[in-house]
Each structure stands twice: as structure tokens, then as C-alpha cells.
Design goal:
Length: 172
């Protein structure tokens, strides 16, 4: 199913969803998965621990954030696809970033983990029927479909790589 098949556009994730072309959700997840992130590896290594402003995340913090967020969103997708209507709490991304200690890990380790998590997400979404993709669950900002979560995951990656290209790559 494509982005244009999303019926309910949740407030918070809609910005991320709009980042993605109107393509099949599996195509989107794969397009911005392993090949995409590994194609950026050399530039990410060159940026290293530079930040464009005090208090901003490093490249490793951003990759860890992408991993953490994808795990949270994939879990939500699985719950909603299984018709679980429980309101799931949000999460505090800044608290996660502080306690994740991404600075103690190599960039390659983080990139490999991202690839593994994305492959798991792709496999999860391959298991969903069209009916499951259209099921909705509750998030703090409203209702969201499983399909919308898939595009949110993809758009979230695109969003952060846009920031990297705009604000971090000029530091090289």
C-alpha cells in the first residue's frame, strides 16, 4: 500500500510521512534502509563528533536515535496490526539519547545495528496484510494506522539525514 492510502493523518508524525514519496511502504522502508545509510558512511565518518551548535547530537547520537525510534514505532505497528487498541505512551527521545551512551560505540557498530533493525522492520511489514496495515491504534497525538507508522519510520530517517546533509556535512 502507498502513502496516499493513509486515511487518518496524525498530527505529530504527518511531517515525517510527507517526506516520503507516494510509493509502496515496503519499497520506502527498503529504499531508505541498508544501501541508503551505508552510502552515507564515509561522510558520517568524516563528520565524526562535530556538531553544528552546542548541545546538538553527534552523528552517533543521531544514528542511535534512529535505531531507538524505529524499535518503538515497529513495536507499536505490531501491536496495532494485532488489533491491540491500548493507548501506548510516548517516549522521551532526549532521555533516551542521554542514557544510550552512543559515544561509547563505533559508528560502524551503530550502522550495522541500524541495518539489522531496518531488516527486522521490513520483515515485520512484509507479514502484514492490507487489512492489518489499515488498522489503527492510539498515540498521544491521536490515532495512527499501521501503514502510517511505516511511512513515519521512513520519513523520520529521511528527516534526520536532511539535517545531517544541511547542518553537519558542511562541517567536513
Amino acid at each position: 500500500m502507498k502513502r496516499s492510502d493513509i486515511k487518518t493523518m496524525p498530527a505529530t508524525p504527518s511531517t515525517y510521512i510527507q517526506e516520503v514519496d507516494d510509493i509502496e511502504v515496503l519499497e520506502a522502508l527498503e529504499k531508505y534502509g541498508k544501501k541508503f545509510i551505508l552510502s552515507e558512511r564515509d561522510k558520517l565518518l568524516q563528520v565524526g563528533d562535530k556538531v553544528y551548535a552546542p548541545g546538538k547530537w553527534t552523528v552517533r547520537d543521531i544514528i542511535q536515535h534512529l535505531i531507538d525510534t524505529e524499535r518503538v514505532f515497529s513495536y507499536r505497528a505490531m501491536r496495532y496490526a494485532r488489533n491491540d487498541k491500548t493507548l501506548l505512551p510516548g517516549f522521551e527521545e532526549n532521555d533516551y539519547a542521554v542514557t544510550a551512551e552512543a559515544s561509547k560505540r563505533s559508528l560502524d557498530d551503530l550502522l550495522n545495528e541500524f541495518c539489522t533493525v531496518r531488516e527486522s522492520t521490513v520483515r515485520l511489514f512484509k507479514s502484514f496484510t492490507d487489512e492489518m496495515l489499515m488498522r489503527e491504534g492510539k498515540i498521544p497525538s491521536g490515532d495512527i494506522s499501521v501503514l502510517a507508522i511505516g511511512f513515519t519510520i521512513t520519513g523520520h530517517t529521511i528527516h534526520h539525514f536532511s539535517i545531517l546533509k544541511e547542518k553537519y556535512y558542511p562541517l567536513i
